[in-house]
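FW: tagging you since you asked about this chain on Friday. Here's the raw sequence from the shared folder, copied in full. Didn't touch anything.
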Amino acid sequence: MPDGAQPVLDVRGLKTVFRTRAGEIHAVNDVSFALQSGELLGVVGESGSGKSVTMMSLLGLLPMPPAEVRAGKVLLNGQDILHLPPDQLRRVRGAKVGFVFQDPMTSLNPVFSVGMQIMEPLKKHLGMGRAQAESRAVELLELVGIPDARARLYSFPHQFSGGMRQRVMIAIALACNPDVLIADEPTTALDVTIQAQILELVKELRQKLGMAIIWITHDLGVIAGIADRVMVMYGGQVVEQAPVKELFANPQHPYTRALLLTIPKITGEREARLKVIEGQPPIMLGAPNACPFRARCEYRHAACDATNPPRRAVDGQPVGLGHDVACHWHAPARTEVAHA
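HL: got it, structure written out here
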């Protein structure tokens, strides 16, 4: 990233809780990261680690109550959008930040044509008339690879395959040329062939449009192929962050190491069984006061039970700019997890 450049998105100390009958669930705990223009940040972690809740917190997409964004700043091009009034925040969503949701089968409104759903943000955020919005919608469908775009403009979602629906979702997210695109596991519900097509599409769009992208996924293989940096989340917090090649070659957190060991190998001697991470994710009732991974960690010691480790630099750069880790014990580089 350029030295001294202002990030397009700068998240500082984000905390989100959910009020339940059992108590407060601390779903996002002091999450900080920055995203430069044109950069792709991969966000990984198992289900329940806080990936989607973090990104939805940024844009006020969580139901409040039971959710509450309790602390933090979200600077978009220097403006704190976290506490904007709802009407102003709606102008940010779609116009400056696009969001591609997880399930293409349910994310589109079944009673409106795909063209109407693409044109809506164009009319609302950019003030386009119907003819101009229709022309732009055709351009967007062509951009994301929908064949015979003008004829398909007034087709309904059920007339598209899963892969085509996901392309439509991407077209909607790109409609207003946002500064940031957040893609929440956009290929999870698709077969591997269509996944590959969507990934190639995202690479092409990134080259053409130069926007910053946050890509949320369980799939480390996907991250290895498209990301510049990786942010690993566990227990609602960032446990490691690094450039993608550095993370794969030199993982420092025991959780990151465990994730990499679960990836099937296609070369060398194969294991009889895939590695698994024993145990269960933490129940995040109450504020975290110890390492969230301690119950599943083979390197656990007294400090892990006493305090929640802060993020600290591994490579001498400021936290968030290079390789940093939140761990009382730094795992050494091991050849068996060097996949990159």
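FW: Residues 331-340 have pLDDT under 50 and may be disordered.
HL: agreed, and The radius of gyration is 21 Å.
FW: great, closing this out.
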